[in-house]
Amino acid sequence: MKQLVKVWDLPTRVFHWVLVLLFAGMWFTGNQSGNWMEWHLRGGVALAALLLYRVIWGVLGSETARFSDFIKGPQAIRRYLKGELKESEQPGHNPLGGWMVVVMLLVLGTQVVTGLFSADVNAYLYDGPLASSISSELAEQMNSWHRLNFNLLLALVGLHLTAIVLYRVLKKQNLVKAMLTGYKSIEGEAPTLYFAPTVIALVTLVVACGAVYFVLTRF
């Protein structure tokens, strides 16, 4: 019998949807000219803080948000692909989805780093906040990597959306609704999950923002 189980905490859900909005906003501003690039840079700084927050939350946060919960080895992946891994055993990200999270965070991190160090080769007005700390040649190269990496990001987003559709069609699981409400419909016995206090998420966010501010103002 299926039952609704709380799987995603509020901090993880807020992170996910803020990330979606930031990504969309930076995609738009990055393709505009003029003063839009100023907003693109601001979005990049916000994204840097958001990603750092998620990394820390992946260690200190709720059970299903922790890397230790969803980064699994070959055996778990094989069990999942064979249909032997019950959802009640791993109610959050499945083994493949867990590795997708890791890859997405790494590629997003690469996008942020290259953007922070990029030179504005179009208008020469909106260099990344850390571009002056490296040579102009390397800063221009960072710009090229920034543009190339974005194509990889788009491919990953497309793969992510495809997985959501397949889950909806083949497994009758609405992953979008689950990330909105925090609840999933799970077959079998409901797992007992640990949810970290929201205050820890708030402190984590302050620490992440402070760390990004320190780096941008000291280098």
TrEMBL record:
SUPFAM superfamilies, alphabetized: Transmembrane di-heme cytochromes (SSF81342)
A cellular-component GO term for this protein: plasma membrane
Keyword Transmembrane helix: yes
UniProt topology in membrane: Multi-pass membrane protein
Protein localization: Cell membrane
PANTHER family named among the record's database cross-references: BLL0597 PROTEIN, NI/FE-HYDROGENASE 1 B-TYPE CYTOCHROME SUBUNIT
Principal subcellular localisation of the protein: membrane
One annotated GO molecular function: heme binding
Native source organism of the sequence: Craterilacuibacter sinensis
Pfam family, one: Ni_hydr_CYTB
Residues spanning the membrane: 12-29, 96-117, 150-170, 191-216
Descriptive protein name: Hydrogenase
Keywords: Cell membrane, Membrane, Transmembrane, Transmembrane helix
InterPro entries: Cyt_b561_bac/Ni-Hgenase (IPR011577), Di-haem_cyt_TM (IPR016174), Hydrogenase_cytochrome (IPR051542)
Keyword Transmembrane helix recorded: yes
GO BP of this protein: respiratory electron transport chain
Residue span, Cytochrome b561 bacterial/Ni-hydrogenase domain: 7-182
